From TrEMBL:
GO MF, one annotated term: phosphatidylinositol binding
Native source species: Spodoptera litura (Asian cotton leafworm)
All copies of domain ACB, residue ranges: 236-321
Domain of life, per lineage: Eukaryota
Alphabetical UniProt keywords: ANK repeat, Lipid-binding, Repeat
Domain named VHS: residues: 318-367
ANK repeat ranges, renumbered to this chain: 384-416, 417-449
Record-given protein name: Acyl-CoA-binding domain-containing protein 6
Amino acid sequence: MSDGRSVSGQLKKFVFRGKSSSNGDTRGEYLEIVIPELLTAGYSFYTWPSAPLLAWYLWTQRRHLRGLRVLELGCGTGLPGILAAKCGARVTLTDSVALPRSLRHLSACCEANGLVVNRDVKILGLAWGLFLSEVHALRPVDLILASDCFYEPSQFEEVLSTVAYLLDGTDARFLCSYQERSADWSIEALLKKWGLKGALLDLDSLSESSGLAFTMAEALPEYPDSDFSDDEQSPLDKSFSKASDHVRKLTNVLNNNQLLELYGLYKQGTEGKCNIPKPGWLDGRGRKKWEAWNSLRDMPQDEAKQKYIALVQKYAPELTDLSNDNESGVKEAWVAVSSMLKSPEPELVHNELSILDAARENCADRVTELLSKHPELRHETDEDGLSALHWAADRNATEALKAALEGGCPVDAVDECGQTALHYAATCGHIESTTILLKAGASLLKDEDDCTPLDLASDDDIRKVLEGAK
């Protein structure tokens, strides 16, 4: 590597490439990692077969890695962790504190790939199963990696107890690759003992496209303001709207499971049966939200609204069910009994929305207002390069999408991965947003993986629309 230093021992090169383009050009995304190996030394000085497998999976998920807090356990030469760091993750590499030579060799592996220890990566010696201050300082973490840590049966429980401690109370994920060398050495019983659930990833499905179409989900449920007037709402919808408004004040006092249950019922009540693909494996929060919604299957929307209202009433003692009808004959289901607990006025909340928030929440009027006053906001993006069009397309916020387009937002603006809003709409299965973007002149551009929106679309109706635009 040109950006690394010379090292002793045998060098093993691992090359990871992005999807080749149709004209045979293979100069797309490319990453080369070199690992110095000392084959005459202990087993932590060379790369075991499970490590390249884990590294390749991370490469297919590289879009999700940027900014993630990644911890690799028992990393040996550190191939998976080094790859994650090269893809933008904040990585801590660990191995046994009793093996100082291994830790020094791990440092050499990092430096051979242009990574500066304590700047680009951290290296730490750990003792599995001992919850010392060093282990506590590793939390919080988003993703824990391990390749072939399950080699010595005597250490299986020490590894899993450490993993269980780091995962406890978080949305972190544990991803490991290992060779099961004997049926008597299974970790299934230990997973159950430590309250962990495992799932096998299908190697046949490992590809450039698996799980790449989703950005990291934001922190748990959102409850956008209703865009219906009171005159247009049924009594049930009025109660549902008031309940969802009140949930804004509960998000800091409810636990994740309670919020997820509310989220699923809210989505079912407003949109019906789950209509989006399941997020990729690394998107732990997104998958939990998807599962909460998808688990409701074919529950009627009115039933979901009723269950949502009942659940909010259970969690909110300051709301009470009125037994008397009002003058119009409509029974009000909710009332705030303390003026201190009232939600902010809708207009005040509306005026605080940024261009990206307004697009995400489908607040078309706010989008129009901001773009008319500040035309430069048409180029505004978040840290991942997502514009107002990206967010509106991702959420199928069609009114905000139209407003952003009318306000001059570039229809073919790309995020950090080279994807346009049309990529997002097509991937998420949003036929309305896809149609709007195509009418606005959106192009079938290729992203950094050489994929057009048509390549990423799984919905047949969307594929037909996109094929007609070619």
